[in-house]
Every structure is written in structure tokens, then in C-alpha cells.
Amino acid sequence: MAKAYERIADELRESIRAGGLRPGDRLPSETKLAERHHRSVPTVRDALRVLQDEGLVEKQHGRGNFVRRARTKVLRGNGRHQWEKNRAHQPEAQRLETGSTEHDTGLCVGDLVFHAAYRETKADARVAEALGIPEGSALVERTYRTRHAAETAPFALVTSYLVRALVESNPKLLDAANEPWPGGTQNQLLSVGIELDRIEERVTARPPTPEEAAELELPPGTSVLLCRKTSFCTEGRVVEMSEVTLSGDRTEMLFVTPLERW
After folding, report:
1. Average pLDDT for residues 1-5, to the nearest whole number?
2. pTM
3. Distance, CA of 44 to CA of 61 (rounded, Å)
């Protein structure tokens, strides 16, 4: 037999799924729900906690419990890299029309809020190994946050590393004021004569840190996907490495592998 809090959660869940409670609606107060169901407030809180863990309800401190709005989904496929490479030689006006986030979400440029920050740093042992460079080498560390204008959480947390010596011949690549760069990283590298030969991506999953959960606005119990993207030039050298932290509740990874015919 279902416990009291489970029955309350079932009723609220059904109301949400049936449209009686719509995204953004505020639920009755915990006290009113307790009175309605003839149960204690702690029992109601247990029911709400179930719905919060399922991502159906979110608690806004000082305001109450609300039906969680569905967030824009992200479909991140490996075909995006060839798509970006094909765009690298396009005129700037054409490159300005869309970007990788629009490609992954179906949104338009005007739907997005973009932020980039650059800083010069030295390669620690972990990053030096990934880039195949001596520890302490000068890097350009770039962080990116892009979100739907109708939402408050970014799609992902992105940190990208470039070897400074490879890109410093174009001073524009050292200044975040030139972001968002039309055509993205592949066009940036093209501006210093670098063509990419392949991109390797390693994807793992883990629970988020408290900071990640807060910035990505993750429901309790939601994992993050970690994607380490390593870009190799046609000479076989690593020229860029990105670490991307993606929300597990809104991201789908799609890998399509063309097979040679016999």
C-alpha cells in the first residue's frame, strides 16, 4: 500500500501531467496541501521532495513550490564538427547567421545570451599532458556560457584551452571582446593557418559539484555529462582542448558513424 506522501505526490504528478498545474504555476502552500490531504506538513514536504527529485517541481526560497518549466533541449552530435569546418571558409556575414548552439538547439541567434571570458594562464600538469606541451607553457583559457534568453541557466559550462604561441600571431584571438566569433574555434584557427584533421571526444558522467548544480540549475539527483574535446591539426598536433559540462536532464548525445562499404 502506498504511503501517505506517495499518494500526495501521485495526485500532484497527475495534475501536472494532465495540465491542471501548468509550467510556472505555483503550488498551494505546504500548509494548504496538508489541510487538503489531512496530513502533516512534514508528510507534504516528503511528497514535494519526490517531485523535486523527478524534476517536476522546484522550490524557490521565499516564494514557494512551482511546476518546473521544461527547458530547451540540446542534441549534441558528432556531425557538428564537420558542419563547423564547412562553415570556416564562408563569408563573415554568412557565419554570423548561426552557430553551434543554434545548430544543437534549433534556436536563432536572437534567442541567445552569450558570455565569454579570456585569461592568460600557465598549463598545469593535467592540461599540459592533454595538449602535449611542457608544463608551465603559456595558454589562453577561454570560458563560455550561452543560454536561452527565456531561461536563466546556461546550456553548458565550457572551458577551452589554446596554446598561446600557436595563436598569438592574430591578436584578436587573445581578446574576448571579439566574441562571439563568427564561425567559432575552427574559423579562429583558420585565421592563423591551422586546419583541423580530427576531433576526439571522451564523454563520462558523474554527480555535479554544488557549484555546477547551482549554475546549471539542476534538479536534485541529476548527473552531469563531461565531454573532453581534443582537436588535432593536419600535422597531428593538439591545438585546442575543451572541457564541457552538460546538464544531464536536457542533453542528448548522438553519435553517427559512417561505415565504409565492402
Report:
1. 81
2. 0.84
3. 17
